[in-house]
Specification:
Number of helices: 8
Shape: elongated
Helix content: 25-40%
Distance between the termini: 58 Å
Radius of gyration: 24 Å
C-alpha cells in the first residue's frame, strides 16, 4: 500500500459511493470480527450495500480474537427485524384519500417484495390497477389482468395510461426515479409507504406519507378501506392490458430464409 504497486487502488474511495452505509478496510486480523458483524447488521437492517476490504497480506494471516485491552472492540452477532407501523391517525388519513378515489393506481417497488398478498388484497378492494418499477417486478405475477407491467423508459403502454388517467396514486416501497412517468402534479392525490423517510414525496408530491414496513402497513390499512363496487376503472385497466396482449400475440412471426 502506498508503493505505487501494480493495480494499487484506493479501494475505500472506490467503494464509498456504492457502499456508503458502511465501508471499512481491515488492518489487523483482530479487527475483522467487528467489521463483519457491523457490515452484515447494517446491510440487513438498513437494506443497503456494505463492504469490508481485506488486503492481500492480511488474508494470509491467522485470525486472532481481539485482546481484552484498551482500544479494542468486542462486537456480537444478531439482528431481529422490528415491526415498523405508522400511527393509527395517519393510517386513517391514508384510508380517507384512497376511499375518495375513483381511479386508483398502485406502483410497487422493491420494498413491496414481501407484501404480495397484501398488495393483491388492497388492489382488489380498491379496484386498482398496478404498475411495477424495475426492482418490483417480482411483487406480482404478470398474468393478473389488472397488472399493467413495467413503468418508465422500458415500460408498457398500459402502465403509462394508468398513470396518466388515475386520480389517486398509492406508491409502495419504490424510489422510481422518472417523475415524467408519474401523474402530473395536481392530477392525483397520493399516498406513499416506505421504510426510509428520505424516500417519501421524493418524485411526486404526496398528501399522506407513511413510514412503515410495506406488508405490516398494508395489513393495518386494509380494514380501513371501503370495497369499491364501481368497477368501471378496473374494467378499463384490464381492457388496456388485453389490447396490448392481443397485439403482441397477434403480431405475425418474421420468417427467416437461411
Amino acid at each position: 500500500m502506498g508503493g505505487h504497486y501494480q493495480q494499487e487502488l484506493d479501494l475505500l474511495s472506490m467503494f464509498k459511493d456504492v457502499a456508503g452505509a458502511f465501508v471499512q478496510q481491515a488492518s489487523p486480523p483482530e479487527q475483522v470480527r467487528h467489521l463483519l458483524d457491523r457490515a452484515v447488521r447494517t446491510a440487513v437492517g438498513e437494506r443497503r450495500v456494505t463492504a469490508v476490504i481485506l488486503p492481500n497480506d492480511l488474508q494470509d494471516l491467522p485470525y486472532n480474537e481481539p485482546p481484552r485491552a484498551h482500544g479494542t472492540v468486542h462486537s456480537g452477532i444478531g439482528y431481529s427485524k422490528p415491526r415498523v407501523l405508522p400511527f393509527d391517525e395517519d393510517l386513517q388519513r391514508a384510508a380517507e384519500v384512497l376511499n375518495a378515489g375513483h381511479k386508483v393506481a398502485i406502483l410497487v417497488g422493491a420494498g413491496a417484495l414481501q407484501a404480495t398478498e397484501q398488495v393483491i388484497a388492497i388492489a382488489e378492494k380498491l379496484g386498482a390497477g398496478v404498475a411495477k418499477a424495475l426492482l418490483g417486478k417480482a411483487v406480482l405475477p404478470d398474468d393478473l389482468p389488472w397488472v399493467t407491467g413495467s413503468i418508465g423508459l422500458l415500460g408498457t403502454e398500459p402502465s403509462y395510461q394508468l398513470m396518466s388517467d388515475c386520480d389517486t396514486l398509492l406508491m409502495i416501497g419504490s424510489g422510481f426515479p422518472y417523475s415524467e412517468f408519474l401523474p402530473r402534479e395536481g392530477q392525483a392525490r397520493g399516498v406513499q409507504i416506505d421504510l426510509q423517510p428520505d424516500m417519501l414525496s421524493l418524485r411526486c408530491p404526496m398528501e399522506v406519507n407513511l413510514v412503515g414496513d410495506a406488508s405490516e402497513t398494508l395489513r393495518a390499512l386494509l380494514p380501513l378501506l371501503e370495497h369499491k363496487t364501481d368497477r368501471r376503472w378496473r374494467d378499463k385497466v384490464e381492457t388496456w392490458r388485453a389490447l396490448v396482449k392481443q397485439e403482441v400475440i397477434g403480431t405475425p412471426a418474421i420468417r427467416l430464409n437461411v
